[in-house]
Target: Ancillary SecYEG translocon subunit
Amino acid sequence: MEVYTNENEQVDAIRRFFADNGKALVFGLVLGAGALIGWRYWQSHQTNQLQGSAEAFEQVNRGLISGAKESHATAERFAAETNNSYGVMAHMHLAQLAVEKNELAKADQFLSAAVSQTKNEDLQALANIRLARVQLAEDKADAALKTLEQVKGSGWVAVAEDIRGDALLKKGDIAGARAAYTKGLGSDSPQAIKSMLNLKLNNLSS
Model:
């Protein structure tokens, strides 16, 4: 770094710097300002888009609950076209209704779409848990076990191991089922789930 002997030399150096680099600086400032404006616009757009999705989801949800004509088709269209958490929740609601009608293949389809639609770990875990339950009800124990491998997060261990144990039991693997139920019991889980796991373990022993 140069050492300036007096203020005049400093002023002259600054003038030379801006003369040599002024255009580049202005260009950089314009780019920086443009990026900032673009970022703020994107944030605002995302917020507005989510708000719009939330309002549309409420309408879709009310339509499904009321059983209004065309509500199912509207909900399917909304779920397919809405690439955020509200689209995921719409798919899961459609899956729930399909399960209630014993349309397990449709429920499987809706939940698979929900899984692929989100990167949120908790939403993915919830969708995969429900998907594994549906697959087990379809007598697809191997598919359910594969789905459970995608469930992440310590908060889901007990319920995942409960389903894993059921799937292994369906395959005739009593030792594997016992290990899964025991692992679920050892996790931090609500008492209701622990009571159910205990009951299943006791039934294996009898």
